[in-house]
Amino acid sequence: MDFDAVIFDCDGTLVDSEPPGFAGIVSAARTVGVHFASEHELIDLKGRSMAETLRTIEARRGSALPEDFEATVRAHMAAAFREGLQPMPGARELLERLTVPYCIASNGPRDKMELTLSLTGLLPLLHDRLFSAHEVGFFKPDPGLFLYAAAAMGVPPQRCALVEDSAPGVEAGLAAGIPVWVLRSPQPLPDRLAARVRFIDRLAELLD
Fold first, then answer.
1. Which of 25, 30, 84, 106 would suit a FRET pair with 2, their CA atoms being 20 to 30 Å apart?
2. Pick from 139, 119, 186, 118: which is nearest to 9 by CA?
3. Active site residues
């Protein structure tokens, strides 16, 4: 292993939360009269903040959303997660094999991470190594979240490995000077990013 610590994204990297998460957003949008044909219409929101999700729904609606609509979205997402969320293939095995410090750094709030990691049985493996953009104050693609996580682990950014699956996360990692491994997903990366990362098809390949 040519790294001294690992920073993981959460959604779509360790936890297979994006399909049910998008389904929850679609369900919540219907409550304010916004209809998406399927969750695939939201694919460009992959890895982005809730604020961008709300702006997308508001633009489709053509009028302001209710003040409590974010809570509605999160409730619908949580309900979808509880229906049968799964870890990403190989996530537990990889975490159990790692011999260097590791953590999660996510745009999501801590309670969402704790919920999804708990439902998938991964939370005991992460302990208190969860870093949320809501608490740190930097949202991907800003590199601040990853720089904070690296500093918290006491490892220089260039000696970390970042495991991501979305363009905003990749942008943030590259801007932070962190080598990036990308778990392939149905949404391809822009060429300007793809040329600067290492692609993996399975999480276990991080240790190859």
1. 106
2. 139
3. 9
